[in-house]
Amino acid sequence: MNHSMLQLLQQLLMLSKMLQKKIKSRMAHLNKQEKRDKSFDGTKSFLELLDSEDFDSDDCLPEIVRTESYFNENESTIDASPLCSQIPPNSHYVRSKGKTCNTFNTQANNRDNGIINVEMIRKRALQDITNSPEVVCLGSNNCSDRAKNLCIKSEHIYNKTNQFDCNFKVSGSGMNKSGSSSSGGKLPPHGPRRPLMPSRHASDPFVPVRRRFPVSEEENKHYIAICCLACSRWQKLQAVDIDNVRMTFSLFGNSLKSGGDVSNYVMFAFCRLMFHNNHPSKSKKNYFFSSIGDKLLNELAFDEMAKIKKCFDGAATARKLHLCDMLFFPINHLDHWFLFIVNLKDRMLAFLDSLHHKSDPYFEGIIPMLINNFQIVWDKFECSAIDFNSFRVFFPPVPRQEFSCDSGIFVMKCIELWSPRVVLLNLLSKDDINNIRAQYMNKIFFHTSNAMLQTESEDLVVNWFQNDEFRYDGFAIFLAQNVAPVR
C-alpha cells in the first residue's frame, strides 16, 4: 500500500473519529442499538446530521462510504491532492456539486465490488425519530367526577359501617342516576333546617308590589283560545295527553279559566309536568297523584293498598323514596285543596293550606289519619325504618285565598316553590292567581310531553285569532273580554 493510500486512510480515520464524537454528543440519551436505529432518517447522509458551523471553513468532508473489505493493494493509486481543492466547503453540496467526490465514488465502485452501495448504506442508517407512531390518548380523568365518586364511596363506607343504608350501591366510576347520592333523606350535619317565618318588615305591605308572574301577549291569546274552545263545538276534542293523563278542551279549559275549580286530572297532569321538569334523580323530590292522598284519608282496604303499592313502586323507579328529600301529596278533601309534604331531610310533616289553619276543625281528624296511614304504607312498602310520629307537624305561612276555587292553584304553586327556607308570602298573593292560571295552562298544553302537539288540537289553539270563523264568534268575543288581561 503506497503513501497516498495511507494518507487517505488517515484522513478517513480522523473523519470517523469526529463523526463518532459528534453522534455521541447528539445521541447520548440513546444507549441501545435498537433505539439508535430509530434516530435518523435513512434517506439522509451522515454529513447532513452535522451543522456547517461544527467545522472550520478549511475543512472539506467527502461523503462517507463504509466498506466491508479493504482496498486491493493492486489497485491503481488515487489522487491524493488536498481535499479542499476537490470538494466545496459546504457539506450540503457534496452529493450534488462535488465532481471530485462523485469521481472518487465511481472509480471505487468500478474497481472493487466489495464496496457497499450508498443506497444500501442509507437503508442501514438510523431512522428518524419523527417516524415513530403518534401519541394516542387512551382516556382522561376529570377531577370533578373523581371527587364526586370518592365522596360517594366514602359516604357508602360510612353508612355501611354505621348500618344507615344497606341498599345503596356504588358502581365504580359510573354513577347510577337513581342513587347517585346518599344525602337524599339524610339528616343535615347541623340538624333539620329551621323553616323561615317572615317578620313584619319582610312581607306585604312593606315589600313593594312587582310583576311576579308576567304573561306575554302570545300566552294570553293561547289562554283565551283554550277557554273559548272549552265551550265551543270542539269541547270534546282531546287537548292534553301527558303520560296517559288525558283531558278534553272542556275539562282542561273550565278547570284553569278564571273562576274555575281545578280538577283532579289537571293536578295529575301538573304532577307529571313537575316530574319531567324536576326529575327525582336530580331534585330529590317525588310527586304523587291526588288520588293517593285521597286514599290515605280513608280506611286502607286491600284493593286500595294494591293501588298505593303500584304507585310507590313506580315512584321508586325514578329514585328510592327513602333517598328523597321531600314527597308531595296534593289532596282534595271536601272540595278544597291542600298540600301534604313529607320532608324526610328535615324530619317534618308540612301542611300547606291557603284557607285553614292548624287549629281549624277542618284538620281535626285529617292530621292523625294521614300520619297513621302513611306510617302503615311506608312500613309495608319501604325497607327503611322511619318513625313519622316523631316528625314535627308544621304549617308554613301561605298567602290567603280570596275565592274557594283558587285553592287548587295555590297548591300547584306551593308544589313548585316551597322549601323550608322559602317564604311564600313574599313570592305570591291572591292577586297573582289569574296570571298563574294562564301560565299553567300554557305550560301544560305546550309541554314537550303532550302527545296532542302537532295535531288538530294545537292548530285550533294557535290559529284561533287568525281564523275569521273563530274571531267573529260572539261567544269567543265575550270570553275574550272577561278573561284576565295580561299584567
TrEMBL record:
Gene Ontology molecular function terms on file: deSUMOylase activity
Domain Ubiquitin-like protease family profile intervals: 245-418
Record GO biological process: protein desumoylation; proteolysis
InterPro entries hit by this protein: Papain-like_cys_pep_sf, Peptidase_C48_C
Biased composition (Low complexity): 176-185
Region (Disordered): 176-203
Keywords per UniProt: Hydrolase, Protease, Thiol protease
Family to which this protein belongs: Belongs to the peptidase C48 family.
Protein name according to UniProt: Ubiquitin-like protease family profile domain-containing protein
Organism field: Oryza meridionalis
